[in-house]
Structure formats: C-alpha cells, structure tokens
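Hi R.,

Here's the chain you asked about this morning:
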Amino acid sequence: MEKKGSAAPPILHASNLVKHFPVKRGYFQKKSYVKAVSDFSLQIAEGETYGLVGESGCGKSTTGRMILRLLEPTSGSVFYKGKDLTRFSEEELRHVRKEMQIIFQDPYSALNPRRQIGKAIQEPLSMYSIGEQKQHRKIVLELLHKVGLQPEHYDRYPHEFSGGQRQRIVMARALAVNPAFIVCDEPVSALDVSIQSQILNLLEQLQEDFQLTYLFIAHDLSVVRHISDRVGVMYLGHLVEEAPTDSLFSQPAHPYTQALLSSVPVPNPKNKKERIVLSGEVPSPLNLPTGCVFHPRCRQATAACKEVVPVLRELAPNHRVACHLV
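And the predicted structure, written out as tokens:
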C-alpha cells in the first residue's frame, strides 16, 4: 500500500499529554505517582496510519486510551477535528465516540462470552439508532463478509472461533458505527505470524474502503514498517523520535531507535549488522532519571544528558528527534 505521508490536515492533535497514576508505597502508605506518559504530543493526518512503537510498559497503550478518553489525562489536550475532547461532557463524548473506535490486543476479553457475535456486532447499531431495527441483521452480515467471515457465524459464540477470527469480529464491531478514526492497540501481537499478515492486509483494505485513519500501536517493528506512513518512538512515556517510515528505518537518529532497529532479525544470515545491546534495566516510572530518561542506558550519554531534558528538534522535513547528540 502506498505511503500517504502527512500532507493532509490533521484529524487528531494530542498536545502535551501527561498521565500519572497514584500509588501508595511502604508501611506508612506514602503516596507517589507512576509517570506513565510525560508531555506527549502528536498529530495524525486524515487517512494516515501513524505507528507508535516502544518497549512494553513505555506508555503506548495508555496514550491510545487517553486519546479516546477511556483514561482521563492528568493534563494536556486532545483535539479531534479541531474540538478539544478533554472539555467534552459525557453526552458530547458519547456522540463523538461513534467516530472514534478501538481494536484491543486481546479480542476474547473484548467480547462477551455469553453473547452471540451477531448480537455483539449489532449492539452499537441499536445504541446509536443506525438504520431500522429490521435492517440490522443485514448490516451485520455485510460487515461479517467485509472482514472475511461467513453468514453462519452470526449465531456462534466467541469461544467457537480462533484468535484471528475473533479479531475480525472485533474489527467488524468497530466498523458498525462507520468511524473515521481507529486506535489499533497491538491488534496482531497475540496472533500467529501467518495470521498477522492476513489481519494487516485486511486493515489496509478496510482503511481504503472506509476512508479510515489509524493510530497503530505495536512493539513489532517489522509490522509497523509494513503498515505505517509515519512512526513515533516512545521510551518511558516520552516521544524520542518521529519520522516518515522510510526515513526512520533508513536513518534512525536517536540512540534508542538505533538500538531497537538493530534488534530486528535479518532474513538473510549473510547480511550481518551490528547489534546494539543496551546496558542496565529500564528505570522505574515511579522514579524517572533526571535529564534525558534514556541516559542511564545510552552508551553515548554526556553530562548534559544527565541534567537537561532534550526537546524534539526537526532534523529533516517531518523528522524530529529529542537528543542532545543530534
């Protein structure tokens, strides 16, 4: 699928998002905070697929849920089509959620095990009064066909399907309300490699058919490279690099991005490359390092990295990096 770039106007703009989770520690139950996301900003153009990558626990899923206001941000704003969702009432949010959907990592937990999948897909149609009641079954059958399932699947229960089929069901349910923007929260990470490619191809086909915009969250860089137009790299709640997909994979600028890309297996064993092994452990989000959060594991860290927080600077058109060394 041809990469679209970011020339189109942004459909979504997240600005300075912060999320802190309060926790109590120790015998005296001292209150402290898990700093899951810190000063995170991004823009996603209409029709674009924005890939968000990073290690487990870096804040990717938390960011996706804040954008949809499934989690309330500690601070910051989320603008969807120019309107700040963080200021919306519950009633206003209910209406805009028809345009913003999510595909979860675990499709089985996203489905009611006691509910037939036809009824599960039909539920949003009834909730938003889409079409006449007597037409709902026909709409659901069309959606099942769109995601590669059969009419006889309508009356079956989630446990009667494979993981890939359940993910197709969740995708059909998300499409039922005709959304414009979908957060794909690691939608293929729990699937076999052969099934992953089928789901990725289906996501691309649905994007073309329904004119969708994706925020695609993943930790598998090969998957992100295949489907994304632009990629943002997260580390400990911070956006450390952002670039068009081809630029990021050919010219990674941040030491963390370089380490991530060096870990991607090469199909041809004769084409060897340097493997960058990061030293130490990922710092706790309860007690983040001063300065650049990556400096304790960076082999190029300087004194400035330990004291001053780097800001995102434009290295090339649409290529931004937060590093004192660049």
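The first helix runs from residue 60 to 67.

Let me know if you need anything else.
M.
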